Amino acid sequence: MTTEAPLLGFVSDDVAAILGPIATYWIASGFFATLDTIKSPVTEKYRIHPEEELTKNRVGRFTVFRGVILQQCAQALLAFGLLWWQGPEAHKTSTTFFSSYILPCFQFMFAMFILDTWQYFFHRLFHQNKWLYRNIHAWHHSLYVPYAFGALYNNPVEGFLFDTIGAGVAYGLSGMGVKGSIIFWCFSTLKTVDDHCGYNFPWDPLQQMFGNNAAYHDLHHQLHGLKCNFSQPYFTFWDRILGTYEDPVAASIKFNERRAASKTQ
């Protein structure tokens, strides 16, 4: 069996699978952070929350930045350790990876389904169990107003269980090779950052392709949305099937009506 050239050419596929999602995270986050800084009227009109609402967040940006960096370093060290333990022959791939797009596309879609299933049920559990929420998941919800580089601000236990193991299970069950995992993990990372970006752009392809988008997930970060919209990062079918789906536009209208009514009493 001959082996393919690395997908990115300048680095091995194993290293790209580990470092690619981290690079994707900070490149995408840097783009949205630039928009936050520039405050162009073109983009500001699509901001989900007024900037002054950022004061409702219970942690500062440096704490979030440090938390994400530490989590990514721990995940990368674990992955490199596993790679070293398995040896250089473990992830060699044949030359057939791109010979047909049918199987890789099926594997990609199946991995999306597995990851969504994993994330939905664990995410919902961490909300329904008061101890798990208070001691672990509340870290992430300290960001009442999400922003891009806070997408992976989690308790380390949650980061390991939701993201590291969840992505590994999706990769393993789908049967995709290392090259497929590079694309899948980078795309999933980009999607997660976009879901927390704080903007509801009509021209953002990810927000138009998926009903599970920034507006959908932002509702979940609000106090009146904590018990709905658990699905992440791709689809909404588990929320719809199990009765935890809330349309973000309708929910926002109802919330504003209740708030206005309470002020008049």
TrEMBL record:
Residues 108-244 form the Fatty acid hydroxylase domain. The chain crosses the membrane at residues 15-35, 64-85, 97-115. GO terms for biological process: lipid biosynthetic process. Keywords: Membrane, Transmembrane, Transmembrane helix. Signal peptide: none annotated. InterPro entries: Fatty_acid_hydroxylase, Sterol_Desaturase_Related. GO terms for molecular function: iron ion binding; oxidoreductase activity. It is found in: Membrane. Its main location: membrane. Pfam families: FA_hydroxylase. The keyword Glycoprotein does not apply. The keyword Transmembrane helix applies. PANTHER family: STEROL DESATURASE. This is Sphingoid base hydroxylase 1.
